[in-house]
Specification:
Radius of gyration: 19 Å
Number of helices: 12
Distance between the termini: 37 Å
Largest sheet: none
Mean pLDDT: 91
Helix content: over 70%
Oligomer: single chain
Order of helices and strands: HHHHHHHHHHHH
Strand content: under 5%
Structural class: mainly alpha
């Protein structure tokens, strides 16, 4: 899952620059390290829960390794990463610690096989909406920006995060069906779930336009983040042609992730201009 870390780090790092607060190198190092361990915890705990709950997740097992030992190692590493991130966030203040604790609790509720809100249709979506907001706010408040001013912007990333989760479920649908894991993608038609994801993505950008009209964000952010809409529109054409093969969905996710990454980099470069 290491290739997913940069994707997950994009939202909090963008929040850091959107806060428009003085940035100090030492605190940046602490923040980036803390958020990396936080995201590592979420990814590992998710894998741990999947492997405990679904024996058909073979692709996550390295070859030539004892599976039970590997699952225990993932669980211990997830706990260790979480403890490290809490300690590091404590250097940034009580509010980042509180948000990190909330994120950890949500991750536990989503992934633990005894609770597994991943299989609860409403619960899984709500957790992703909240998770996207927490990711953004962790960066936004890291240097003292008031949380109230970041909540409205955080909703844009909540919608993006939730939409991406619908796509992710479609990619995991075969393993989930084998293991009788009940998600949106296993219970409903894939084209309907992907259409829902597209609607949520578009709603996120409409909401971003509302933030622009209300002068909550600067115009460059809205215009910079128009690029992914082209990627979503191209995928919609595939969907209309019933082209929903797994490789097509995987390519779509890869492209829109890179699209949002390019937008994030572009916005950061704009904020750093003289």
């Amino acid at each position: 899952r290491s290739q997913e870390l940069p994707v997950w780090l994009g939202i909090p790092v963008l929040g850091l620059f959107m806060a428009e607060q003085p940035i100090f190198c030492q605190r940046v190092f602490v923040f980036v390290t803390a958020i990396t361990f936080s995201m590592l915890h979420v990814l590992l705990l998710n894998d741990w829960g999947d492997l405990q709950k679904n024996p058909y997740e073979e692709k996550k097992f390295p070859s030539g390794i004892n599976q039970k030992e590997f699952i225990r190692w993932i669980g211990r590493t997830a706990i260790g990463a979480y403890l490290i991130c809490i300690v590091l966030f404590s250097f940034l203040g009580p509010l980042p610690v509180l948000l990190a604790l909330m994120g950890g609790a949500m991750s536990f509720l989503y992934s633990h096989p005894g609770i597994h809100l991943k299989e609860n249709l409403i619960g899984s979506t709500v957790l992703h909406l909240l998770g996207g907001a927490i990711q953004f706010l962790l960066g936004y408040i890291a240097f003292g920006a008031p949380v109230q001013s970041g909540v409205l912007i955080a909703l844009f990333f909540s919608l993006i995060f939730a939409a991406g989760h619908f796509v992710h479920m479609c990619l995991d649908v075969n393993e989930d069906r084998k293991g009788n894991i009940q998600t949106w993608a296993t219970r409903f038609d894939l084209s309907a779930i992907l259409s829902t994801a597209l609607v949520v993505f578009v709603c996120a950008h409409i909401y971003l336009y509302i933030l622009l009209i209300c002068q909550i964000i600067a115009p460059p952010m809205f215009y910079i983040f128009l690029l992914p809409l082209l990627i979503h529109a191209l995928f919609y054409q595939n969907l209309r042609r019933n082209n929903i093969a797994q490789n097509t969905i995987a390519q779509y996710r890869f492209r829109y992730r890179w699209g949002y990454a390019v937008c994030t980099i572009g916005y950061i470069l704009w904020t750093l201009k003289p």
